[in-house]
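Inputs:
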Amino acid sequence: MTEAVFAETIAKDQRVEPRDWMPDGYRKTMIRQIAQHAHSEIIGMQPEGEWITRAPSLRRKAILLAKVQDEAGHGLYLYSAAETLGADRGDLTRRLIEGRQKYSSIFNYPTLSFADVGVIGWLVDGAAICNQVPLCRSSFGPYARAMIRICKEESFHQRQGYELLMTMMGGTQAQRDMVQDAVNRWWWPSLMMFGPPDDQSPNSAQSMAWKIKRHTNDELRQRYVDMSVPQAEALGVTLPDPDLSWNDERGHWDFGAIDWSELQRVISGDGPCNALRIENRRRADSDGAWVREAAAAHAARHQEVAAP
Ligand code: ACO
């Protein structure tokens, strides 16, 4: 496959597969985005994982456990997709724990009450779905296909979060206050998940041209706001933005200014929980070293025995 065939594949909306010729920049961009996405899933297990032992009922514990396991699964599919491009999983993990590769800003905020579990499901997984459904049509085959299954599971995650919040909103005043407090803390960071504004997004133009991204950061953020406002109304919570108002002319909700300096701070490692998240990951990596070594020794032994 040559450059012309690659260009034709993109123009015809077909998929680029791992063995096809692709520009170095395309390969690098795909590895960057897929690795960041995989790291987000793996680090994303922590904020909610902290609540597994403290879930208020067996039912909530079982749901949360399943959800956190799903996140691990998403990370694994995504690392596998990155491997089809020649990336090495061990190397990607090292880049994460040495702070050389990013993961989503959203997972650097603390989960202060059980309502946060519901709000993460509703708002954070809702934002993830909004961002990831178009990625099912992303031009790189293994990534697009992984995204189909991931989005199905994310939809379940979002439903469980919304259902949890509905239950809490039907409870005591103290429970309703917990939900509102969690919404107040997570709303703005959720909007930041979509990335910097389009005029400050260095990768968007090229990723759109290669059809890796199908919509810009701002387009998806607007779609998310439009989707969330009626859901907040149905739930009976207030989104913490006094500038939120329906704009008849645009046919969209207007919203207030986002504090982009906060996103920059969190991305550059100075969010409320960055150090903790990375420290936990580093410890998991070193604690698990003996398992990887044993598995490798077992595989080598198996090969020796199997060899004629
Ligand atoms: N958190 C951390 N880093 C971010 C964020 C964020 N919310 N938004 C943007 N960035 C990073 C980008 O990765 C990029 O970093 P790099 O160039 O140094 O590698 C830089 O900021 C500039 O941003 P953009 O030019 O807009 O980058 P890009 O075109 O890659 O768009 C986006 C960012 C929208 C996150 C895109 O990579 C994407 O859609 N990724 C797949 C989805 C994903 O990773 N989701 C993870 C969270 S959802 C979940 O796990 C439940």
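The chain has a mean pLDDT of 97. Flag for discussion at group meeting.
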